[in-house]
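Subject: Sanity check before I submit

Could someone independently write out the structure tokens for this chain? I want to compare against mine line by line before I put it in a report. The sequence has 545 residues.
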Amino acid sequence: MGNPRILEDELQVYEALAQTLIDEGVSDLFGLIGDGNLFLVDAFTKKSGTRYVSAAHETGAVLMAKGYASVTGRVGVATVTYGPAVSNTVTALIECARDGVPVVLIAGDTAAEDRHNLQNLPQRDIILPTGAGFEQVRSSETATADLATALRRAAREQGPIVLNVPVDLQNADVAYSPAPSVPRVSPFAHPSREAVEDAVAVIAASSRPIILAGRGATSAGGSLERLSERIGAPLATTLRSRDLFRHSPYNLGIFGTLSTTGALSAIGQSDCIIVFGASLNVWTTDKGALLAGKRIVHVDRRFQQLASMVTPTAGVVGDSAAAAGEFLEVLDEAGVGQGNFRDWDLSWYQTRRYTRPLDDAAPIQFPVALDFLEEAVPESRTLIADAGRFFSPAMATFRVQRPQDFVHTANIGSIGLGMGSAVGAAVGRPESPALLVCGDGGFMHGGLAEFNTAVRHGLDLIVLVFNDGGYGAEHIQFRDRAMDPSLSLLEWPQFAQLADALGGRGITVRIVGDLDDAAQAIKERDGALLIDVMLDPDSMTRPER
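---
Independent answer below. Compare away.
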């Protein structure tokens, strides 16, 4: 929370809303101004210690708030005007809702009596189908309380909330006082002893268990590693909690469709999967195939997550770290023998590296480019992944130091949501470069305009565009079905030149020798940098890992 102050003088509603943001601890605001929110933005920027990041498109503004919330753990706040500005946010709000990221969108609205305004739209009806919550400013006197409610709902529900602010209320005078504080509710949930004992009985009856950690277990890494050593279980993660165990010698990496060949071998030999904080979706389980014939112990804070995808052998509602600690206690009390890893050979799981060709004039190959650039970008990166044909091999290659340093933007399978999220992540975590990995279609779809936003705001952003000259997923289908793949290919402009024109710097990688120029540009960057990796669409295959 910020430092609340009671103002004796009356404020106009837009000024009171700006002060409420400060009192609620909001220092960064993303948005695009118009008649419905320009006074709010102006008032916010006049407060000390604030930053307003102006987006080029409303979708970008909401995605910036999402990226910011993802890396900071705080509520991301965006603002747009009314009508088409609100309808432009629909895809981004759906993405936020699917991802479970706390975002508040402050949206202007036309006055109730202004029925014939060209931009008058039924905004509640537009918002609710996205999965976002909706809060209406009920009157000038309730405006600050309504905003505080929206902020607290986003934090409590871990999802997007839209605050609808009619423009005719914003100039009204109100006596300002901070919204009353509310008790913070601890997310800690202690598992029941009976459920723990049932789970331990399943674990004790297993000879080859694996521990799988999802996003809900990212704060429990140490506890899970202790349990791993106790029962002799290798460790794996979902994509969303990637690299949680990166320093453990017993790390299998990602569990699921992105698993390495070695990890899949270990999963195939296992007889029990102990799951902490993961939804067990179709990608993690490969549509259930990776769990077939295995006992499942599933731990999650949310009761509704248990059996939502897979029916477990034993289910435990509770905090992951607490449950792991309880498992250890019951194992010790029951005298279950100490596990070890001597029966497991984990050496083969390590990621294979691709040797750079000796011929600098050779055309660049996707696996070589991936491995080289992974090494060239500083290890302290924040990784933002767009969606596209490149996704699986790129996610199998690029690493992060903590799961919190990874921002996923493919929750609804849309391309083009990465750049806005990357801008927000760069604002939220300025001490490290934001690394956006995207395809050429995604860059043109949603990245071009907001690249300039990164330039304007002086952000440390590295964009890797894996450019196969069109829409690669469709190219595969056309080619595999003996249809005309040229329909999926487009004559894009030169992205490096576009990056230069937008105020950043661009580098094109066509041949092996160009990789050295890319590495040098990464070292010397002083702002937004784009590296355009030109690839043959017919040779784009997933590397063997």
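---
OP: Matches mine. For the report I'm noting this point. The radius of gyration is 25 Å.
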